Amino acid sequence: MMLLPCPHCGPRNEDEFICWSEATPRRPADPSALSDEAWVDYVYNHDNIKGWSAEQWFHARGCGRWIVFERHTVTHEIRPAARGDD
Fold first, then answer.
1. pTM of the entire structure?
2. Is residue 2 part of a domain?
3. Which residue range is the domain that position 21 belongs to?
4. Which of 62, 75, 83, 84 is the least crowded, having the fewest Cβ atoms under 10 Å away?
């Protein structure tokens, strides 16, 4: 079990959170201009890096806010979180 440092609630067990996705991909400016293949690539194909990754987590059983954690995908070490939707 990972302990995630929520900047609003303090340290919490990971089962209070939902991990959504990598935090770095940005929604295309004009999604309607993308081909079907480009849209599928954006939605489903992620970098899946080995090392530090910025991830979006939703604190579902806590403050109800989106938080960006940096997590090492091998060791699961967590770096301090961004406050998210302040």
1. 0.75
2. no
3. 17-82
4. 75
CATH no. for residue 54?
3.30.2270.10
CA distance 45 to 39: 10
CA 67 – CA 82 distance, rounded (Å) = 6
Tally of domains in the chain: 1
Structure tokens at 50: 């080995």
**Displacement of CA 42 from its chain's centroid (Å):** 15
Q: How far is CA 27 from CA 36, 47, 50, in A?
A: 15, 15, 23
pLDDT tens track for 30-56? 988 999 999 898 888 887 889 999 999
Taking Cα atoms as reference points, which of 58, 59, 55, 57 lies closest to residue 73? 55
Helix (H) or strand (E) holding 39: helix 36-44
What is the residue whose two structure tokens read 């081909």? 35
The closest of 49, 67, 47 to 58, measured between CA atoms, is: 67
